[in-house]
Amino acid sequence: MAEANTGAGSMEEPESSWCLIESDPGVFTELIRGFGCTGAQVEEIWTLEVDAFRHLEPIHGLIFLFKWVQDDKPAGRVVHDRSDIFFARQMIQNACATQALLSLLLNIRHPDIDLGHTLNSFKHFCQELDPVSRGICLSNEEKIRTVHNSFARPELFELDTPDAPSEDDDDDVYHFVSYMPIKGRLFELDGMHEGPIELADIGQDQNWLQVVRPFIEARMQRYSVGEIHFNLMALVSDRQRYYERQIQLLVHQPSPLSHTERQAEIAKLRTFVTLEQEKKRRYRQENQRRRHNYLPFIVEVLKQLGETGQLMPIYEKAKKQAKEQANQEQACNSPKNEANQEP
């Protein structure tokens, strides 16, 4: 699923524009790596039940994709007096995926995560700027934009009109926002607003995921029944590193577990490490496929089929099969003939 085409301000020139980004944990995890940040990854969340998150802790923030509507009212108070929160306005179309991710990364203070040179330098440069100026700097940050645009979908044809769809178009548009706890309070970070949105206090004994749940559910309920175009992802510490650290602790430090129990736990953790390695391999493979331009190959195949007279027979066969399938579905969905009904 792609992000919203909802940037503020005018569209940049084509060479400096930002592409749409798919809402996928593999894509966001590679964005993190591309920015030079280590120790973090993104996982998809399928439920808002807090117990379902236990295996991913620590969870540093959530990224939520939803259908964007104009004049979306904030669910809490927009704050302007929090200099300790890094917040940037969205000043360019299609940038909300990267902005949602950076809103989390640039506000995290955790030993697991190293921002790296690019993000540390950007944060330091923009630290004293206002949100609009930060947004302008982000729009023109070449390294970040290049990583973002590495997921641009290949285009077969160049259009004469570079204007992006607006909110007046019939197509649905989607938007990414972030949620995270900062110093005992829950914030929504959305570049379409003027500042961070303070949603609630987080009690000492509360899991912040319990606090954020009703806000996400409330946003979902604003839409019509049957609307399922939502996606929720969590920014977490690198799971492979986490499991490897747990193994090292069991190997080198005293443990209340017996030798047999300890070996069983180590074996389980090594299985988790292998699964994480396989996941990273799969992400790399999927992202390579996303970047590969298959269009010239498809065009050439269609051209060769046309020249050898095979294209139209394939088309007619497919057309016939589609019609038969439609007739079968119609027959299955229509009421039974009264004469065939049981008394």
UniProtKB/TrEMBL annotation:
<dbReference type="InterPro" id="IPR041507">
    <property type="entry name" value="UCH_C"/>
</dbReference>
<dbReference type="InterPro" id="IPR017390">
    <property type="entry name" value="Ubiquitinyl_hydrolase_UCH37"/>
</dbReference>
<feature type="site" description="Transition state stabilizer">
    <location>
        <position position="90"/>
    </location>
</feature>
<dbReference type="GO" id="GO:0005737">
    <property type="term" value="C:cytoplasm"/>
</dbReference>
<comment type="function">
    <text>Catalytic component of the polycomb repressive deubiquitinase (PR-DUB) complex, a complex that specifically mediates deubiquitination of histone H2A monoubiquitinated at 'Lys-119' (H2AK118ub1). Mediates bisymmetric organization of the PR-DUB complex and is involved in association with nucleosomes to mediate deubiquitination. Does not deubiquitinate monoubiquitinated histone H2B. Required to maintain the transcriptionally repressive state of homeotic genes throughout development. The PR-DUB complex has weak or no activity toward 'Lys-48'- and 'Lys-63'-linked polyubiquitin chains.</text>
</comment>
<dbReference type="GO" id="GO:0006511">
    <property type="term" value="P:ubiquitin-dependent protein catabolic process"/>
</dbReference>
<feature type="active site" description="Nucleophile">
    <location>
        <position position="96"/>
    </location>
</feature>
<keyword id="KW-0788">Thiol protease</keyword>
<dbReference type="Pfam" id="PF18031">
    <property type="entry name" value="UCH_C"/>
</dbReference>
<keyword id="KW-0378">Hydrolase</keyword>
<feature type="active site" description="Proton donor">
    <location>
        <position position="175"/>
    </location>
</feature>
<dbReference type="Pfam" id="PF01088">
    <property type="entry name" value="Peptidase_C12"/>
</dbReference>
<dbReference type="GO" id="GO:0016579">
    <property type="term" value="P:protein deubiquitination"/>
</dbReference>
<feature type="site" description="Important for enzyme activity">
    <location>
        <position position="190"/>
    </location>
</feature>
<protein>
    <recommendedName>
        <fullName>Ubiquitin carboxyl-terminal hydrolase</fullName>
        <ecNumber>3.4.19.12</ecNumber>
    </recommendedName>
</protein>
<dbReference type="InterPro" id="IPR001578">
    <property type="entry name" value="Peptidase_C12_UCH"/>
</dbReference>
<feature type="domain" description="UCH catalytic">
    <location>
        <begin position="17"/>
        <end position="237"/>
    </location>
</feature>
<keyword id="KW-0645">Protease</keyword>
<dbReference type="InterPro" id="IPR036959">
    <property type="entry name" value="Peptidase_C12_UCH_sf"/>
</dbReference>
<comment type="similarity">
    <text>Belongs to the peptidase C12 family.</text>
</comment>
<dbReference type="GO" id="GO:0004843">
    <property type="term" value="F:cysteine-type deubiquitinase activity"/>
</dbReference>
<keyword id="KW-0833">Ubl conjugation pathway</keyword>
<feature type="region of interest" description="Disordered">
    <location>
        <begin position="319"/>
        <end position="343"/>
    </location>
</feature>
<dbReference type="InterPro" id="IPR038765">
    <property type="entry name" value="Papain-like_cys_pep_sf"/>
</dbReference>
<feature type="compositionally biased region" description="Polar residues">
    <location>
        <begin position="332"/>
        <end position="343"/>
    </location>
</feature>
<comment type="subunit">
    <text>Catalytic component of the polycomb repressive deubiquitinase (PR-DUB) complex, at least composed of caly/calypso, Asx and sba (MBD5/6 homolog). The PR-DUB complex associates with nucleosomes to mediate deubiquitination of histone H2AK118ub1 substrates; the association requires the positively charged C-terminal tail of caly, probably due to direct binding of DNA. Interacts (via ULD domain) with Asx (via DEUBAD domain); the interaction produces a stable heterodimer with a composite binding site for ubiquitin.</text>
</comment>
